């Protein structure tokens, strides 16, 4: 219990601990079954994901394969979608808001290791939480590093490596990821018109 408490508190801990091994073994058992299920086994998949995570909201879809360290340190809101090959190393807590979309191969890392090699070689490590707000779209092959907070209504471009906090209502891309512009009322007007045109097109097909 001591090492687990230290891990969740963001303090240095030793990951080779019997209780942590037990937690990881439970996780691996669930993940193995989950990643072997058919995409048609919707009810079984939903039950496994609910057993895996600390919490998850309504209306979620997660494509397999999916991987994580513990699972029970991941908290997800409503209307979540993750495409193939999502990886979340939840040494520390990961909080994901409502209406969040992950493209393929999104990685979230919370684990950190000492910079000094002698200390690092003693197998001490630590974790720092990651938080993602509401209405966020994360592009393919994005890596989100420990300690990062991403605000609401954010778009993260494909291939980005997010090493620092990203403010709400922005588009951010690059390595390291940086804000390239704000999301404005002009974006809303443009996409609302595209949406209206879509509905007009569908109506004309009837």
Automatic annotation (TrEMBL):
GO molecular function, one term: galactoside O-acetyltransferase activity
SMART domains: Mac (SM01266)
Its EC number(s): 2.3.1.-
Domain Maltose/galactoside acetyltransferase span(s) in chain numbering: 4-58
Keywords carried by this UniProt record: Acyltransferase, Repeat, Transferase
Gene3D superfamilies on file: Hexapeptide repeat proteins (2.160.10.10)
Top-level taxon of origin: Bacteria
EC class of the enzyme, as a word: transferase
PANTHER family xrefs: ACETYLTRANSFERASE YJL218W-RELATED (PTHR43017:SF1), GALACTOSIDE O-ACETYLTRANSFERASE (PTHR43017)
Family classification: Belongs to the transferase hexapeptide repeat family.
Name used for this protein in its record: Acetyltransferase
Organism encoding this protein: Jeotgalibaca porci
Native organism taxonomy: Bacteria, Bacillati, Bacillota, Bacilli, Lactobacillales
